[in-house]
Amino acid sequence: MTKEEEILKAAEEEFFMNGYDATSTATIAKRAGVTHAMVNYYFRTKEKLFMQILDNHVYDLLRALKPIMQVDGNVAHVAADAAVVIFDKMNEDRRFPYLLSDISRTHPDFLLRYRETFDTVCRSSLGMHVQRLEKGIADGNVQPCTMHDIYSTVATLATAPFMNLPILENVAQLSPDMIDRHLQERREEMVRIIRARYSTGK
Amino acid sequence: MTKEEEILKAAEEEFFMNGYDATSTATIAKRAGVTHAMVNYYFRTKEKLFMQILDNHVYDLLRALKPIMQVDGNVAHVAADAAVVIFDKMNEDRRFPYLLSDISRTHPDFLLRYRETFDTVCRSSLGMHVQRLEKGIADGNVQPCTMHDIYSTVATLATAPFMNLPILENVAQLSPDMIDRHLQERREEMVRIIRARYSTGK
DNA sequence: TCTTGAATTAACCGTATTGTTTAACTGGGT
DNA sequence: ACCCAGTTAAACAATACGGTTAATTCAAGA
User: Fold this and answer.
1) Beta bridge partners of B14
2) Looking at the domain assignment, is residue A62 inside a domain?
3) For residue B182, what is the domain's CATH number?
């Protein structure tokens, strides 16, 4: 692994663990086993380094999300499938929800840069979703609700379990094994919840 | 309002907004309109000041939680009621969930001090809850599930909407009015979700 | 009036860290 | 011999940190 990759990896770990402001370039360098100056040599600034990492994860997520947004079928079942996809994606980098929360609070401009991309990916299918939802409700396949209800519920159930991890790890002091089991349970429960609330079971 | 109260109020706002580490005693003093030294004069250390604030909110929450934990009745309905109580409590200090998340990550020892108190309040009724859950399932009044499922779902649905606020405010750029409306919708949806998942409707 | 002691202030303590830059040096390719 | 990306140690200026000190204000009690 080149030094550049080493820095990138170390930076990712630090940012995901401590957020943007609480992470210093010196700490990153130390973790990567390189001198402090190398960070600036390769990435010029802390922000550029961070944005490169954030880019990877955001586009990775959007890429995973895209096909799901276009699937045709019972809205309730699609919602459950989407929730699973998001959940599994978050499970790959369990601190990603925290990082998003952190920078949305301290550096929202970092996220605003993605609005355009996000809109073209998601808003494009919004119309179709609403249409299918209305049809689903009319046909008696979907429980009465708004598209907003479904979006928010899916987003919440798929990310919140990871936001709660520090409490379970450090306060409830669950072992890594128990953490894994808990997440597995929450994944299954998430699907049951979405089915129970939005599907009529027909 | 005395200077001491002024400091407490300012400190609360700062801690709730930025977390523990990212808040400085100097900033608190400036916001309170007093000199830096006053903070140490009244509260000796930053940590003591913080713990006093945290104490108030934690005990306030536990006090609100206690009666709900002892209510007898259909577990699914009690869960929905408890969720509403927690949600409304969080709505009084919308950044409280964030603060808990922040210190669970950076200073879990601050929270571990409450474990004893928490256990006597909550664990005492756990046995009863499990018993009532099993009876509810046997009688066909409650959907098959574990007590853990219900606890986690209630905690998640009642707190996650507030964790997401920075994204809605700063990235989605919802107006305060829209934020209020969104939270109101999530409150109602939370109840519908819990009913749909855990109650048989009988 | 004098004394006491809490309230309050400005200034400063030493230490640490921040992101970034500079200038020198290395070693392999041309 | 030259070059240049890679790499280093050192230092940059700024600033912030939590906490302390000594002096001053001021009102209440003796």
Assistant:
1) none
2) yes
3) 1.10.357.10
Q: What proportion of chain A, given as a percentage, has pLDDT over 70?
A: 100
Q: What is the largest CA-CA distance in chain B?
A: 64
Q: Are residues A22 and A64 in the same domain?
A: no
3-class DSSP state of B142: strand
- From the CA of B35, how many Å to the C1' of D24? 15
> B20 is in which domain, residue-wise?
1-44
pTM for the full predicted model: 0.93
**pLDDT of res. B147:** 96
Look at residue B39 in the predicted model and tell me its pLDDT. 92
Best A100, A113, A116, A152 residue to mutate vs chain B (most B CBs within 10 Å): A152
Domains held by chain B: number: 2
Q: Return the residue in A61, A103, A193, A195 with the most chain B beta carbons within 10 A, the one to mutate for interface testing.
A: A193
C-alpha closest to that of B98 among A116, A130, A160: A160
Distance between CA atoms of residues B200 and B75, nearest Å = 11
Phi, psi for residue B142 in degrees, rounded to 5: -130, 140
- The separation, in Å, between residue B119 CA and nucleotide D25 C1' comes to 49
Reported as a single tens digit per residue, the pLDDT across B135-193 is: 999 999 999 999 999 999 999 999 999 999 999 999 999 999 999 999 999 999 999 99
Query: By C-alpha distance, which of B111, B9, B107, B93 is closest to B55?
Result: B111
CB contact under 8 A, A166 and B193: no
pLDDT-based confidence at A190, cuts 50/70/90? very high
Residue A7 has pLDDT above 80, yes or no: yes
Same domain flag for B85 and B153: yes
CB < 7 A from strand D, the residues are A 3, 34-38, 41; B 23-27, 36-37, 40, 44-47
State which residue of chain B sits closest to A105, comparing Cα positions: B166
Residues B6 and B76 in one domain: no
